[in-house]
């Protein structure tokens, strides 16, 4: 009989506490901390939860197999990114977009909300922040804000973005009653941080004057982003929903820039608090003025960045994304093709296991099969190949190399530099999650939590758990792996609360929490040249995460009370 008492609950929480301590206090990197957390979970499983060695091996092997599914997105996504970056494709996108308008607020929203969301839809792993922070610097945004703005702007895209890595991980570690309903609930909840992000960036730029001026643009783009993603999860695989919505949002910038309201500079905004141009001459040594956060240095104005005629055209820069969209759309719509590609499935068989405390896990044959030919990773590789051939034929790689200030590392080395630590972290997190689940640790934590919580209070707090996980691990994917099973089992123990809404709250909270994840913040301050100013960035993003998390929690309570989205 599995004992549910403070001692066993404390032992079950020990691996999570070790992970939190090594990440936050000792500031270890994710792959280092995850490895220690994994071994801690194994030690508790064997000693306290009486898990036999055979059962330990089976659970660990399942975690490794689950990681293969996720890693087949991570590695192709990195290949995709570097194929474009080495041809200066992202620089071409920036220069072509800025040529559309001189409206400063429009450009800040375009890069800090729309473009960073698009980048998150296909790359992730901190890449959107690294790419967009320097672009905002070039527009004249203060360095601290150049990091905080994309952190806020991209958060909503962190679940279905990167072709759904975090979503796929959540599906892998939980046995959802309904994948479709959970995806729908999650899309509803993610619309909240998207809409709030648009208005928040306008507020950061110029307070209420800027908010009033940006209202039409924010509402239109949020309808495309949030509404488009919500509609997409009902008709195409959810892992492509964010890519669809973010791509349409990026395309919508062109007609929006032609609108008289946003086509030229405006004098409707009194103070531009996010811009270096508003720093008063008598500002203190820390660069603060008018209540703005210290900018951490002086950067070039937007005028200092001139378009390079040697860069590729906008259609060519958009080619890999168009190919990716076309491949995903065709395979989703043309049913015979999708069925044929999905016909080849790979899976492993695992035997039934039982612990000394009576926790049994049924045999699986095959366990968690996936179809490599219809997997998002394959679509990314096809799109990367198309881009590589087009850019090499046009001589863009040679041109980019000639313009580079320094020699670039070899392509394989650049990809593996990120892929190896990310892979170690994902494998360790997934093995840790499986060990905690199959040994009964997650069940003890769930039953213990359910004994002191109510459905409404737990529903309200479920996004906070997801955000905590993202803060601990710098990853929504890892947060879903660590806490997805716990949230699901707690909801089942409580009763009276929708599983779909709780799992949606978990992943929406994880997405929001990416705005304060140490990894993303450090990547941003490094790209902006203000290493050591992470505290200033967090002073902007922490209140935002707390406020938006509360709004999502409130939405969960109200939706549950209304009897929507699978209320128990």
The largest pleated sheet is described as:
2 strands, antiparallel
Which structural class should the secondary elements be placed in? Answer: mainly alpha
Order of helices and strands: HHHHHHHHHHHHHHHEEEEHHHHHHHHH
Q: Tell me the strand order in the biggest sheet.
A: 1-4
Mean pLDDT: 84
Q: How far apart are the termini? A: 27 Å
Helix count from the secondary structure assignment: 24
Number of strands: 4
Shape, per Cα inertia axes = globular
Q: What proportion of the residues is helical, as a percent range?
A: 55-70%
- Please state the CA-atom Rg, rounded to the nearest Å: 23 Å
Low-confidence stretches: 278-307
Strand content bin: under 5%
Kindly list the characteristics that best describe this protein:
globular; mainly alpha; 568 residues
Describe the structure.
There is one protein chain. 70% of the residues lie in helices and 3% in strands. By secondary structure, the chain is mostly helical. The strands form two sheets. A two-stranded antiparallel sheet has the order 1-4. About 5% of the residues have low confidence.
Outline of this structure?
The protein has 568 residues and is an all-alpha fold. Helix content is 70%, strand content 3%.
Topology (SSEs and partners):
Blueprint: H1 6-25, H2 30-47, H3 53-85, H4 89-98, H5 104-122, H6 127-139, H7 143-154, H8 161-173, H9 179-232, H10 241-251, H11 253-258, H12 260-263, H13 314-317, H14 319-333, H15 335-342, E1 346-350, E2 353-354, E3 360-361, E4 364-370, H16 376-393, H17 396-403, H18 411-439, H19 441-450, H20 455-473, H21 476-494, H22 499-513, H23 518-528, H24 534-561
Antiparallel strand pairs: 1-4, 2-3
């Amino acid at each position: 009989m599995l004992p549910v008492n403070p001692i066993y609950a404390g032992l079950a929480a020990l691996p999570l506490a070790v992970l939190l301590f090594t990440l936050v206090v000792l500031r270890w990197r994710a792959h280092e901390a995850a490895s220690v957390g994994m071994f801690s979970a194994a030690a508790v499983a064997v000693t306290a939860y009486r898990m036999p060695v055979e059962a330990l091996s089976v659970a660990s092997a399942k975690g490794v197999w689950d990681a293969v599914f996720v890693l087949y997105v991570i590695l192709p996504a990195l290949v995709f990114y570097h194929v474009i970056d080495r041809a200066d494709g992202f620089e071409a996108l920036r220069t072509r977009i800025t040529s559309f308008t001189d409206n400063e607020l429009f450009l800040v929203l375009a890069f800090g909300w729309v473009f960073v969301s698009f980048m998150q839809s296909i790359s992730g792993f901190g890449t959107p922040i690294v790419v967009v922070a320097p672009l905002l610097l070039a527009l004249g945004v203060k360095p601290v804000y150049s990091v905080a703005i994309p952190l806020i702007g991209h958060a909503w895209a962190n679940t279905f973005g990167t072709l759904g890595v975090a979503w796929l991980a959540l599906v892998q570690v939980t046995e959802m009653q309904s994948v479709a309903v959970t995806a729908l609930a999650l899309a509803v909840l993610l619309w909240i941080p998207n809409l709030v992000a648009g208005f928040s960036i306008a507020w950061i730029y110029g307070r209420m004057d800027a908010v009033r001026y940006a209202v039409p643009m924010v509402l239109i783009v949020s309808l495309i982003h949030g509404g488009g993603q919500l509609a997409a999860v009902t008709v195409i695989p959810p892992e492509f929903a964010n890519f669809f919505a973010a791509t349409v949002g990026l395309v919508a910038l062109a007609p929006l820039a032609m609108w008289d309201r946003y086509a030229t500079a405006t004098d409707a905004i009194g103070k531009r608090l996010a811009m270096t141009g508003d720093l008063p001459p008598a500002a203190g040594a820390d660069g603060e003025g008018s209540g703005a956060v210290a900018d951490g240095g002086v950067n070039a104005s937007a005028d200092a960045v001139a378009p390079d005629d040697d860069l590729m055209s906008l259609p060519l820069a958009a080619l890999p994304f168009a190919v990716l969209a076309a491949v995903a759309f065709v395979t989703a719509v043309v049913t015979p093709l999708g069925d044929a590609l999905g016909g080849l499935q790979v899976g492993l068989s695992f035997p039934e296991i039982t612990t000394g405390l009576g926790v049994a896990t049924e045999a699986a044959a095959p366990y968690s099969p996936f179809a490599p030919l219809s997997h998002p990773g394959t679509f990314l590789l096809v799109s990367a190949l198309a881009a590589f051939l087009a850019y090499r034929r046009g001589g863009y790689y040679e041109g980019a190399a000639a313009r580079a200030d320094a020699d670039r590392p070899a392509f394989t080395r650049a990809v593996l530099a990120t892929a190896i630590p990310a892979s170690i972290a994902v494998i360790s997190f997934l093995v840790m999650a499986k060990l905690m689940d199959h040994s009964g640790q997650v069940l003890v934590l769930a039953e213990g939590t359910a004994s002191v919580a109510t459905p409404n209070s737990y529903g309200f707090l479920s996004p906070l758990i997801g955000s905590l996980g993202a803060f601990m691990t710098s990853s929504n994917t890892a947060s879903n792996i660590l806490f997805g099973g716990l949230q699901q089992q707690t909801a089942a123990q409580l009763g009276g609360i929708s599983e779909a809404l709780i799992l949606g709250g978990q992943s929406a909270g994880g997405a929001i929490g990416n705005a304060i994840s140490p990894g993303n913040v450090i990547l941003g301050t490094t790209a902006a040249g203000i290493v050591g100013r992470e505290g200033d960035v967090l002073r902007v993003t922490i209140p935002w995460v707390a406020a938006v998390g509360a709004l999502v929690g409130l939405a969960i309570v109200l939706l549950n009370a209304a009897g929507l989205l699978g209320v128990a």
